[in-house]
Amino acid sequence: MIAVTGANGLLGSFLVRRLLAQQEPFVAIARKDSDRSLLADVADKITWREADVRDEVALAEALQGVTHVIHAAAIVSFSPRFARNMMDINIEGTRNVVNICLDQGIRRLVHISSVAALGRQKGQDRIDESNKWVSDAASSRYAESKYYAELEIFRGQEEGLSTVIVNPSVILAPADWHKSSAKVFKYIWDQKPFYTDGYINYVDVRDVAAIAVGLLHQPIEGERFIANAGNISFENLFQKIAANFNKKAPSVKLNKPLLNVVAWVEGFRSFLTGSEPLITRETARKAGTKFLFENDKIRKTLSFEFQPIDASLQWCCQYYMTKTAGKKSGERS
Fold it and tell me: Where's the NAD-dependent epimerase/dehydratase domain (predicted)?
């Protein structure tokens, strides 16, 4: 029996759909008051167990009878207001998952981390799973939370738990475009004028789900696997999304000094309002840089091929256009 923590979240919902497609027995774990609308169409096929990963007692009960766990429960935030909650869930929650897996003799834990946990040396243009964490003033709290969560996974491995870590890059998925990486689609839909230098590493959410599920039963443990399809310039990415939407692409390039000012203003606005900043210090720092998270290891291990960027963007954009058209139709009726 497989358990998926954070099953109601964006990635979690695709993990659930992958398990359903493969007819794997599983339970979905989420908080009692969580929004489960992403899985509304398959609700009758899911067995839910309620637990907050910070609640050891409830979590231990939810993992009863489970042999394999995919730990996807986490918060992605760059707002200072949510930093404490994010650190608690991402680090303490992972610690609890590891401890309970050890106590209950669970055979395999697949942990969903992030490429943010790998760190990056100054001037480094290619990064693989062996990269060492480097903490500096520009590191986001999110990156720190994922790094310290990985330390809990490594501890579990040393104490006898079979673990594997998946490190996705920026996940492309049809979702609420007011949240996380999906905000880039809303930005282009609204025909905002600005873009920056630099590159983004990306991966289709369906690929991340396939990799995580694929690693559940592999005879390999104690290792990381980067899930990254490739990299693309912000300018090219924006142009591709705009073409799918039949919208005007951003055409005004922000230079680095101006980008730093915008990042500072956005950080201050985020602190006052609690909303996510559109541009972070980390984004500004990486502007003008080009680097790639290597995917050779996972491609060889699972004989895996990633979705091409054009297919992923077309899939996402079609979702947003259909949703927007449906909303307008409802407003007219």
Answer: 2-221
pTM over cut 0.85: yes
Q: Which residues make beta-bridge pairs with 28?
A: 4, 48
Amino acid found at 22: Q
Which residues fall within 8 angstroms of residue 96, CB to CB, at 6 or more apart?
53, 54, 55, 56, 59
Query: Whole-angstrom Cα distance, residue 235 to residue 201?
Result: 13
Q: Which of 281, 8, 244 is nearest to 140 (CA)?
A: 281
Q: Which pair of structure tokens corresponds to residue 131?
A: 């990269």
| Distance from chain centroid for Cα 310 | 20
Distance CA 163, CA 191 (A): 44
**H or E element at residue 241:** helix 234-245
Termini Cα distance of the chain: 46
Question: pLDDT for 136-165, tens place per residue?
Answer: 645 688 899 999 999 999 999 999 999 999
Residue whose C-alpha is closest to residue 205's, from 236, 241, 180, 239: 180
